[in-house]
Amino acid sequence: MSTSAKVPAPDPLDFLAVDASLSTEEADIRDAVRAFAERELLPDVADWFEAGTLPNPRELAKQVGELGLFGMHLTGYGCAGTSAVAYGLACRELEAVDSGLRSFVSVQGSLAMAAIHRYGSEEQKTEWLPRLAAGDAIGCFGLTEPDSGSDPGSMRTRARRDGTDWVLDGTKMWITNGSVADVAVVWATTDEGVRGFAVPTDTPGFGANVIHRKLSLRASITAELVLDGVRLPETARLPLAEGLGAPLSCLNEARYGIVWGVAGAARACYAAARDYALTREQFGGPIAGFQLTQRKLADMVVDVNQASLTALHLGRLKDAGACHHNQVSFGKLANVAAAQRVAAAARSVHGANGITLEYPVLRHMLNLETVATYEGTEEIHALSVGQAVTGISAFR
């Protein structure tokens, strides 16, 4: 059947028109976060990456809080209560600038705030969530330890009762926002199993040491937390957090944000490679006209759009209350690998220029090495999917 209507050519930056299915509210949030990220963050992020720091984190927290991005998918206590898709779009636009900036937001919202929101007492929620949502306070999440990464059940940090108090001892490692946080959600083993605590960071015995000499996620603050006889009242314990499932459920929220975030990093690398290929001339013409370059760009656009589709589909499932944690593992496994392929190909298109901070591709490529590790390594998520399709656990 013929038709006179002409179908428009695909948009090179949204080849499968993924964003065409967004609601007006979702598109408005996307546009607002993209405008903020490109105006306030993109001009300086290469310098921050080179310096290996995130300067003025409290000023940034206030800006993010005013935009309503901290804990935006949570309800009440000053949180915006947006959809999961809207939160994912915010993660995508932040990570299109830099993974460290998305981590700054998602650690606060999907880990620290989500833990207090889901497992905290009413008093803890009232004390911390409005301040964290507004960016008046910064939070971090202490689960990983120097000898306990993929196996958090082997953590050595311990909380023991002493009268009506708890005393915490141990060390946490690779903690985003750790040295600038006002509250740390810390997980520890007790005689009753794993428990969570909302620890004010000015409590005696609490210390944070900034981790330097990173070659990835440099526009981010990463710290070691040291708990040396940290005495807390019973009111600091998250009363509904019982067992390892509590922190793992928070990690699943963060992984969901990563599924979207790396789609943004991939998009940024592909867009940079396309622009470069169209303007870089060799042998009398733009390198975009060479077959090998076009193949690289074609592979990139496939990965970018498939990653975007995966993120959007998981977001719709999540908003419908039908997203299983194994499906989030599928998303992190697939999308991080896709983003790494795109970043590597984009760097090769840029040639020698690809190793400089004048272009974003190697910065994203290095950041993705961290993203592939935190919130569950590639191997862990592959085994999670493997267990889901076989019914057999390979972990124990």
Detailed description of the structure:
This protein is an alpha+beta fold and 396 residues long. The protein has three domains: 117 residues, Orthogonal Bundle (Butyryl-Coa Dehydrogenase, subunit A, domain 1), CATH 1.10.540; 104 residues, Butyryl-CoA Dehydrogenase, subunit A, domain 2; 145 residues, Butyryl-CoA Dehydrogenase, subunit A, domain 3, CATH 1.20.140. The protein is 50% helix and 17% strand. The protein is built from ten helices and twelve strands. The strands form four sheets. The protein has a four-stranded mixed sheet. A four-stranded antiparallel sheet has the order 4-5-9-8, with helices on one face. Strands 1-2 form a two-stranded antiparallel sheet. A hairpin with a 2-residue loop joins strand 6 and strand 7. Helix 6 runs parallel beside helix 8. The longest helix has 35 residues. The mean pLDDT is 95.
Topology:
Blueprint: H1 24-51, H2 57-67, E1 75-76, E2 79-80, H3 84-95, H4 99-119, H5 122-134, E3 139-142, E4 158-162, E5 165-176, E6 183-190, E7 193-200, E8 206-210, E9 222-233, E10 237-242, H6 245-279, E11 281-282, E12 285-286, H7 291-319, H8 325-349, H9 361-371, H10 378-390
Parallel strand pairs: 3-6
Antiparallel strand pairs: 1-2, 4-5, 5-9, 6-7, 7-10, 8-9, 11-12
Helix pairs in contact: 1-3, 3-4, 3-6, 4-5, 4-6, 6-7, 6-8, 6-9, 7-8, 8-9, 8-10
